């Protein structure tokens, strides 16, 4: 019988909730030691463990059929894939922050600034919409230290509680995206895979309903 391949984050903020979602859907998963992939015991599902940034590309290519990834990553990567369901965990926002000591009145205050981010596409799109001209510096990690070391004037990064910003002497001034984990899918599933996905979606929706 056909199986559906689901990509989930190998480790990190989405891992526990992704595994828990499968469990709540009564899907039994044995996680092996190598943790590259595993097969569900009672549902036609193969689980691939990947870096979250790689999931959209793998979904477009069909290496995985469906996957759990943050909306932030999905929108930044702009792959040809489809969101099937929002999952209610991994909630955060993509926000612009500036040093606490700076006065901020309006978005035009960002004109001419150097902004450090791991989300160059989403930041560029936001600035174009607002007619802001800023210099975008793409960096892959520890974005919040960029102003402190003189690499940029401000940052755009994921925020949930705001404590990381606070600890780095930054304050949030604009939100550019509200994000949460979503279930996304390859555009060309085979008929039998579609049937499995529908079964999985039905279970996920029941789990979501039971929580409300
Ligand atoms: P990987 O090793 O898979 O590349 P990562 O370090 O890029 O992991 P995590 O920090 O584990 O990613 O975050 C995964 C996702 O969790 C984010 O893309 C986002 O959707 C969500 N998330 C929720 N809250 C936060 C937060 N406060 N900071 C960062 N990500 C958050
Ligand atoms: Zn990542």
Quick structural gist:
This protein is α/β, with parallel strands linked by helices and 212 residues long. It is built from six helices and eleven strands. It folds into two domains: 4-90 and 181-211, 3-Layer(aba) Sandwich (D-Maltodextrin-Binding Protein, domain 2); 92-179, D-Maltodextrin-Binding Protein, domain 2, CATH 3.40.190.10.
Protein architecture, described:
By secondary structure, this protein is an alpha/beta fold. It has two domains: 4-90 and 181-211, Periplasmic binding protein-like II (D-Maltodextrin-Binding Protein, domain 2); 92-179, D-Maltodextrin-Binding Protein, domain 2, CATH 3.40.190. It contains six helices and eleven strands. It has helices at residues 15-24, 55-61, 71-77, 120-129, 163-167, 191-211; strands at residues 4-9, 37-39, 45-50, 66-70, 82-86, 92-99, 114-117, 135-138, 154-159, 170-179, 181-185. The strands form two sheets. It has a six-stranded mixed sheet with strand order 2-3-1-4-11-5, sandwiched between helices. A five-stranded mixed sheet has the order 8-7-9-6-10. Strand 7, helix 4 and strand 8 (135-138) form a beta-alpha-beta unit. The longest helix is centred in the C-terminal third of the chain and has 21 residues, at 191-211. The radius of gyration is 19 Å and the shape is elongated. The model has no long low-confidence stretch (mean pLDDT 96). Bound molecules: adenosine-5'-triphosphate (ATP) and zinc ion.
